[in-house]
Fold this sequence. Notes:
GO terms for molecular function: nucleotide binding. There is one protein chain. The protein is built from 16 helices and 17 strands. It has helices at about 10-15, 20-50, 55-60, 90-110, 130-145, 185-190, 195-210, 245-250, 255-285, 325-340, 360-380, 405-410, 425-440, 450-460, 465-480, 500-510; strands spanning about 1-10, 75-80, 85-90, 115-120, 170, 180-185, 220, 235-245, 295-300, 300-305, 305-310, 315-320, 350-355, 390-395, 410-415, 415, 425. Strands 11-12-8-13-14-17 form a six-stranded mixed sheet. Strands 2-3-1-4 form a four-stranded antiparallel sheet, sandwiched between helices. The radius of gyration is 25 Å and the shape is globular.
Amino acid sequence: MCFGVLLDTVSIQKYIFSTNNLKENLGASFIVEEKIYKVYLEEAIKEVFGEVNSSLLEDWKNKPEKIAIKKDAPYEVGYVGGGNAFLLFADENKARQFIEQWSKMLLVYCPGVTVAAAIGRIDLNDNFSQTLKTLFETLAENKAKFVPQTVIPRHGITADCARTGYSREVWCDNLPSDERDYISSVANAKIAVVDQATKKYREILKNVIEENALPEQYDFTNELEQLGQKKHKDSHIAIVHIDGNNMSKRFMNQKTLPDLRKLSVSLTEATLRCFKIMLKRLIEEIPRMSNDFELHKKDNKTILPVRPIIIGGDDITFVSEGRLGVWLAKLFLEEFERQKVSDGLRISACAGVAITKTKYPFYRGYALAEQLLKKAKDRRKYERDDGSWIDFHLSYGGFSGSIEEIRKNHYQFSGYSLTLRPYKLSELDELLKGVYELKKKDKRGKSMYPRTKIMKLREALYSGRHAQELFEIELRARGIRLPGYKHFNGTKLVIDEKTPYLDMIELMELYPEFALNGGEQ
């Protein structure tokens, strides 16, 4: 018997995306992934025990079967990943001292980060799963009980930081010379690690290029305006948030500590592998993007139209040019379903894709992506499905209210729904076949469904049953069928008060042409 300590970051997404500045988002992500559970965890151990045995912190990844605490080690790492950590201590008082030291360090060096901890006895033998489950339940109770103050409160005599709304209390030398100023300690901590965050993701990109012997050099940008948007045209970005399905339950169900460690390592590796494959596919398509995308160059490197922000555990967030978001999310989900993790069971994930104006407040776009992700997860649960689902939304301007309110106000008409979102991956494939048909050209290069007809179709969908019947009559008279989708055979616009055709029309704008029809165009 020993003492387990569960550490968790509360509201990670809120901390990372509380600003509109992409660099600060990257810095915040780096703090969560690399600082909290590595640098400051190690320093807190050193404060409590006087020295650090690196093998007790690192062996869990490469030697999961080795349980040092059974052989009188004072502590060791159970696992670290996805914004949380599980540690083991031989002595309860030392475990409590560790939590105290670690929390103090985060208050000083990572202001604004909110964490929760739980401590409890862990049986490393037959009752491991049950004692771990009890510890997770204690952590959930602690998170619900108390929200600590992690920033210095504002006072009437202090000026507000324009970046965060907190008090301006730190002079920041890491900003460009013409922007240097007093800012909040929260923003300062994020800005201080931007270069380290950039270096980390460049290493991932370098691996993709070298492993696949790609001839050209590429780089990521820290500027949303350089994601490949065309000048003088409507400029959109896609904010994509992907999260694994039911992984917390999978972790709690592990029967031994080695099983738990293996699952953490294999899941993290699977997520990174999928991102790399997605990145490789994107790079392979770069030559076909020259007409529709404006790719920037810097230091003889092509700036990719995608920028990762979070890759941790089963959680991934990236931003891309608006027309690439649904495609990239689909690529990632397809690859994620092909991965095998240590428990031998299938993994899947859901994705929310929010396409907004480039200049629109980033944190609001992210909040929309989070809502869309939840819609996808809720539908998956309702359908009792075990696969991957995706939801998306295109905002032509600003928006207000929740996604439920937006869809109620703009996607429902006369009692029927103008959207079938969210979609299971296989359903999205079926829908994209319809999009391909709508964009298809004949041998003379003439569109089979010209733009005027697509506009009439959209108008009919919004104009009620009578206008739809007239449109259907016109189609029959001209011998034209709309693309099919499931039980829609192309002669009816609305069946059972639902229609897939507005989703197809929106995807005509949202999905890259080179990726339709399996990329065979």
